[in-house]
């Protein structure tokens, strides 16, 4: 059943997000069913699509096909002025399939409705990922499932009404929760995954993410938002602590 008809497994936040922003647009162009595809296996041979690929790919089309929503994000522009950026996400199957060198298969799906340098992917074990920046079809895990992806979008949309902290993300984030924290931030487990983690309180939200370039380490970044004056005070205090740390060469 489609996610808009049966949104089981989602948090109240994500349910509210889909209730407000989610819609379904039926596919107009024909699509070749997965069971009729011939795909290249790990040795490069053309073979009939295996059952696990058929089940996961057709399951994606049934569960998420045609789902569209707009995600809002609070960002800073030139001069550190707040603005809200919106991106439309479309959940439609692509036409590429790869054999994972280790196990299983993965396939592409359409993500943001804009020019984008990478493809978004789903693995037959349920994980959601993307190509690395080499664009060679190598699977990089981002979220544990599509539900985690939707939860992360719902949270990003929620904090679009908050104020973004303009700079010093990772340095400031280390003082917002954890052992060095001024005030504790709880992990938002349903929106977090291997390459993205969310921590949040009533007044502050932190998203830390990492993306793997081919042949290089994961490059980490952090974004911080505060809801009100109390949140601004907490982030400013953390920024002051980060600024006081000795700089390393």
Describe this structure in words.
The protein has helices at 12-21, 51-64, 146-158, 169-173, 229-244, and strands spanning 23-24, 38-40, 46-48, 67-76, 82-99, 105-112, 120-123, 128-131, 139-143, 163-164, 186-187, 196-200, 204-212, 218-226. It is an alpha+beta fold and 249 residues long. It is elongated and about 60 Å long. Helix 1 (12-21) packs across helix 3 (146-158). Strand 12 and strand 13 form a beta hairpin. Strands 1-4-5-6-7-8-9 form a 7-stranded antiparallel β-sheet. The chain has a 5-stranded antiparallel β-sheet with strand order 10-14-13-12-11. 29% of the residues are buried. Helices cover 23% and strands 34% of the residues. The model has no long low-confidence stretch (mean pLDDT 87).
Counting DSSP H or I runs of 4 or more residues, the number of helices is 5
**What's the helix-strand series?**
HEEEHEEEEEEHEHEEEEH
What does the radius of gyration come to?
A: 20 Å
Number of DSSP E strands: 14
> What does the oligomeric state look like here?
single chain
In terms of DSSP E residues, the strand content is: 25-35%
Main beta sheet? 7 strands, antiparallel
Write a compact overview of the structure shown.
This protein has helices at residues 12-21, 51-64, 146-158, 169-173, 229-244; strands at residues 23-24, 38-40, 46-48, 67-76, 82-99, 105-112, 120-123, 128-131, 139-143, 163-164, 186-187, 196-200, 204-212, 218-226.
